[in-house]
């Protein structure tokens, strides 16, 4: 039995399990979130630098006739830029999904805490109590 001032543990331990899972997952999600943000920043920076280099090579190509073709290198840089932006958009979508999942877990944990601390009676429980009362 619990002491008078301490609430008894929840039956089934669902709240404790969800809190435990959140405590385990939260640091990993925060680390992943920070890494995704840093990756996005570095990809934007890399994309800007590739764009500058591509423009510079185009200027050189326009100004002088070289014994070699720089157009191939410019096309390769443009292809790399496209791939970087493609990866960036995929990372952003994954990050949004992870953030959404984290919010759902936090909401569910909060709802479980509220329902156990407030002693909220759900509508189905109310209906069964009303039915029991009408039978008497």
From TrEMBL:
Cross-referenced InterPro entries: Snapin, Snapin/Pallidin/Snn1
Matches recorded under Pfam families: Snapin_Pallidin (PF14712)
Alphabetically ordered keywords of this record: Coiled coil
Record carries keyword Membrane: no
MF (Gene Ontology): SNARE binding
Thylakoid listed as a keyword: no
Region entry Disordered, spans: 107-136
Comp. bias (Basic and acidic residues): 126-136
GO cellular component, one term: BORC complex
Single GO BP term: regulation of synaptic vesicle exocytosis
Span of the signal peptide: none
PANTHER family membership: SNARE-ASSOCIATED PROTEIN SNAPIN (PTHR31305)
Similarity field: Belongs to the SNAPIN family.
Protein name, UniProt field: Biogenesis of lysosome-related organelles complex 1 subunit 7
Species assigned in the record: Bursaphelenchus xylophilus (Pinewood nematode worm)
